[in-house]
Amino acid sequence: MSAMNTQGRPTKPEASASSDTAPATFTGNRALHLEEKLIFEKDSAGRSGIDMPEPPKVVDRLGGLSRGEAVGLPGLSEPQVVRHYTRLSQKNYAIDAGLFPLGSCTMKHNPRLNERMARLPGFADLHPMQPESTIQGALQLMQQLSHWIMTLTGMPAVALSPGAGAHGELTGMAAIRAALEARGEAGKRRKVLVPDSAHGTNPATAAALGFEVAGIEEDSTGRVNLKAFEASLGDDVAAIMLTNPNTCGVFEYDIRRIADALHEAGGYFYCDGANFNAIVGRVRPGDLGIDAMHLNLHKTFSTPHGGGGPGSGPVVYSEALAPFAPVPRIQQNADGTLSLVEQAEGDAAQAFGRVKGFHGQMGMFVRALTYMLSHGADGLRQVAEDAVLNANYLKARLKSEFSLPYGDTGPCMHEVLFDDTFLKGTGVSTLDFSKAMIDEGFHPMTMYFPLVVHGAMLIEPTETETKNALDEFADSLLALAKAAKAGDSERFTQAPRFAPRRRLDETQAARKPVLRWQAG
Amino acid sequence: MSEERYTEEHEWVRLEGDIAVCGISNYAQEQLGDVVFVELPEVGRVVAANDEIAVVESVKAASDIYAPVAGEVVEVNSGVEDDPEIVNRDALGEGWLFKIKLDDTSEASKLMDESSYEDYIAGLDD
Amino acid sequence: MRYLPLTPQDREAMLATIGAASIDDLFCDVPEAARLDGPVDLPSHAGEMAVERQMSRLALQNHAAGEGPCFLGAGAYRHHVPASVDYLIQRGEFLTAYTPYQPEIAQGTLQVLFEFQTQVAMLTGMEVANASMYDGATSCAEAVMMAARVTKRNKAVLSGNLHPHYRDTTETLCRMTDFPVSETAPHVAGADIDALIAAVDGSVGCVVVQYPDVFGHIADLTPLADACHAAGALMVVVCTEMVSLGALKPPGAMGADIVAGEGQSIGNALNFGGPYLGLFATRQKLVRQMPGRVCGETVDADGQRGYVLTLSTREQHIRREKATSNICTNSGLCALAFSIHMSLLGEAGLNRLAAWNHATAVQTAERLAGVPGVELLNPAFFNEFAVQLSKPAAGVVDALAEQGILAGVPASRLYPDQTDLANVLLVAATETVEPEDIESLALALTKELAA
What we know:
The complex is a heterotrimer. Chain A is of the alpha/beta class. Chain A is built from 13 helices and 12 strands. In chain A, helix 2 (112-118) runs antiparallel to helix 9 (362-398) and helix 5 (165-182) crosses helix 6 (201-208). The longest helix of chain A is centred in the last third of the chain and has 37 residues, at 362-398. By secondary structure, chain B is an alpha+beta fold. Helix content of chain B is 22%, strand content 35%. Chain B has helices at residues 26-32, 78-82, 85-89, 114-124; strands at 5-6, 11-16, 19-24, 35-39, 46-47, 52-58, 62-66, 71-76, 98-102. Chain C folds into 2 domains: 66-79 and 347-450, Aspartate Aminotransferase, domain 1, CATH 3.90.1150; 83-341, 3-Layer(aba) Sandwich (Aspartate Aminotransferase, domain 2). Chain C is of the alpha/beta class. In chain C, the strands form 3 sheets. Chain C has a 7-stranded mixed sheet with strand order 1-7-6-5-4-2-3, sandwiched between helices. Chain C has helices at 8-18, 23-26, 48-60, 83-89, 92-95, 107-124, 136-151, 164-176, 193-199, 222-230, 316-319, 332-369, 393-402, 411-414, 435-450; strands spanning 128-129, 156-158, 181-183, 206-210, 234-239, 258-262, 278-282, 295-299, 305-309, 374-376, 384-389, 409-410, 424-428. Classes of the chains: A alpha/beta, B alpha+beta, C alpha/beta. Chains in contact: A-B, A-C, B-C. Chains A and C meet through helix 1, helix 2, helix 3, helix 4 and helix 5 of A and helix 1, helix 2, helix 3, helix 4 and helix 5 of C.
């Protein structure tokens, strides 16, 4: 059988040991922890949280297709609905509440000015198919955002439309495929090189476009193994997909050599820009020899993650790939007005197609441009510096008790990677350690990723944390590490004890999937 | 009934005449953790050795199972489809996955016997 | 800089702890030639008031849809979004949370997703739904890919009355994987179900049909479903206006195997086309081939009910190149907005909202049908219909925009090569349209078409 990457993680919790909270309350609530039923269990038929008068009487034109049966929605008043979602919100950890050190996710502060700007009626209340004369401000905004993105990346073209990072990867790799087709080499160049440490979206993207994925192992420093890379080059190689800074938290210092060798061999360089926060304003990917790269506006440029989206994943292209960028595009007319190019014709004749409905995540464009204007060129450079400084500071504070998988060979970038060597023999796993962090009031770091490191713990503090917050976090992690080594394993294996829920039974969820509420 | 033979990919084979009963090893099910889903091949499919033939999933991993020997799939264990936990409970017995009618009955003898397999997995531990 | 809390003293102290002489030391792995000495050529940082001014200036150069009569649809619909929806989605615990990978401290997001999946399944009449996709068009493309995995047939037939952006998005993805797609011709006079039935054969993996379609037509899809199933193909139903399912027979009741929808019209603003909300619903037995995240019910170590992301082995972070899709981030916050709006509406509210939309559209259609030079093309519709004008629609729309009226979407914008559609205008009327708006549109059209 193929690789097993569970690293022994249990997915069915042991029944909890004696409760710290006995006697239980009569309601099941615990002060601010309020139990909340499903919305469907709060039904009172006929009630609604929205008042609307009787609609005008008309002869219906539904062609005999009226919905006979009820949808099954519960009826609630507005205060009930507000309370329901308020209670649910209080079961979530969030950046607004505390440090959220998820590696490669860049959970930074989300400025509220961005939210206010996105809600200006001139942006939020624009229909995507309005006549061009009525949307010039929107097109200018998209053009300005494009200018900022191209300047920051040092790249000559950008496609704004992708809906998130993985969608940006698809959009970047699709242009590579189109360029290969134009060269008549799409049939021959089927192979995409993907380092083993890459995000899962990289191989999934390559496969979704019909490429074959070939892994490349890492070297003893967590970087691409140059020898293995060079050995895999040939006239069957379409591209490499490389994250830089990579998911081990280090900069690929041989990146230009990689780019040159790849170009020499006729391949294209896709760079995963998920970790752009480490270099924004200090390094332009265009100076590194890349051909395409997506940016996650919901990482580097602070658009909120929203519990899993929406994101936005603009892609920048080199001169070689620019003609193949998808539609829509924006073009400037002779009279200075702007137009949307929505079909692959004229100057856009070589566009590889369309990746999404309409023109992209406008709401996210507004937020990202607001963030860029707020920071300016100087502030963005400071973002990268502080993000890298914060990660290196945590590394320096933690390395006495934690284990660095590749040794302490140099600085990390905006995130620091540890493995579980320091937990060996303690009976505490990376999973247990993460759950104990929850009890201490922190969101866990990214765990068990990248896959190339055993029991990986990837910590990304971001630039929006104070030194005090980092110190509290480091003190807490050091205390936990010492506790684990001292044999206090129950603190970990029983964790979390104070969260709204104890560990959940993922085995049961997957064996007998219950994916919706059912009446009765 | 013969002894189990093992592949480096942690499948086992047990010969019953010219039929090879196949499954995954105890080591494999332990590494995977709780098995939550098993996808089995269609009966009648002809496979070469090392073809991807089935998938065993835990919550956090999906592992392709390779055909340990060449031949035709003649039976699959629908019991593990309904109750995948059997693979954890009894990987070498009730938790078998599929049966292959062998092209060449000597093929299985090229695989590792139990003690070689134990040495092999001992060498895998990091 | 107001968002960056480190002081120069902090930075000094931290560098000392690290053992680095300067910040530049931390960037030593970057090739020297690629290190920028100073800021790039862009403006410097700015205060909140200055940024607000600059952004407002851009916003004011647009004509917001709510400033005058608006009859635009074609995949994006202007509905009233209740104040409490926008308030609740801005709670920091929702807005600034990550994907719920740590379920013990993400039960809020997870329960929302479980409720959302239930609402989507109910509305579409399907058994299960996922936790969302990017938008309707990408949902549609993913549905075609899923149908190919289920049927093991790499061939799809798209209805000519499928929104062209959905068609293009799907075709782009299919072309990349050498996956043949054929389409029937656009049929503005009515839903052309017979043409689709004729295109189904034993090599087809799925047929994609929109309901209501891009011209607003509605038709019983049961005969198409029967034809698909007889040939071993799946029927994929695209719905771009989910409010319609408050009044119309749901796709699930007509034999749909997959419903790919756009959920923007419930709880979400127009936003110039994004972010929107891809909906994806299917049958329970196909769930392991479904793309995207999905939330499931389980229990915790104390035996209490709770929720987790489940069936993750389909997804890229585990399955990598064998994943059902490469999707990762989806439209979580838009799903929350949809779900809250659905909760506020309830059964009675949704019925009434749908009835209002239909009544307004019927009134609009009847009024416009009386304008010389306007011919109503739809025998049946929900809140959107097509009219044939006596002049090219694009020019008429531009002329009316000058008067502050957003008259509709000219079909030529979606079908630029289809000269026979040059005079077709797509008109949508939601509950936000008032009687005066209808009158303004009718009068302006009368004048423009007579000129």
